[in-house]
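TL;DR need structure tokens for one chain.
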Amino acid sequence: MSKNKIALITGGSRGLGREMAINLAKKGIDIMFTYHSNLSAANDVIAEIEGLNQKAKAFKLDTSNIQQFEDFFRAVSSYLKSEFGTERFDFLINNAGTGIYKPFSETTEKDFDEMVNIHFKGVYFLTQKAVSLLNDGGRIINISSGLARFSLPGSSAYASAKGAVEVFTRYMAKELSTRKITANTVAPGAIGTDFGDGENKTERKIKAVTNFTALGRVGEAEDIGGVVVFLCSPEAGWINGQRIEVSGGIFL
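>> reply
TL;DR here they are.
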């Protein structure tokens, strides 16, 4: 990969986003990423990427709040111009998110709005603003969830928003085709990170996932980062409008 390629990752300070950022940096890609509140974690990621001799920049952003997007992209544009002499970047990875675990009968409107705003509305309008800065031939990767394919009680609002993103991704693949920009979805299975208050690290969840997964374990963040790197590679240029589940074969 060319050393001057640049990626923008939302939610890049921890978990899956952190792995994506570091794995992309290992391939010679410079990184911009957002973080919600943990500046210390963001600085740790920057230090690790700079240790790989790549450039890294963190931007504070609440991706559920579309009112922040104009100022955010103004800051991104300014950084790109000052650091790289361009306003454009190559890869957009919509990763930021949170989870809830509640039966749909107990899910409040506030819970619902939170899930839709961060996992669908935020992705929709952030991408809408991002495409003007995305290079022709660029890549968009949206992070979905295995829960958009199979159903486990307690994730209806989260999974429904992820299902919406999967449909949106296919529309982007069509509508951005004149610019040769591809759009794909990566759908992780159960991953043992702090997401959703570490639900997938509980003994009960680990046992259940292990029993239902062909490869017999809960996923790790590093299982996802390399797949995102591949989708940003020249070898993946003919993959478009696809949903790639990375789950070890759960509920086959």
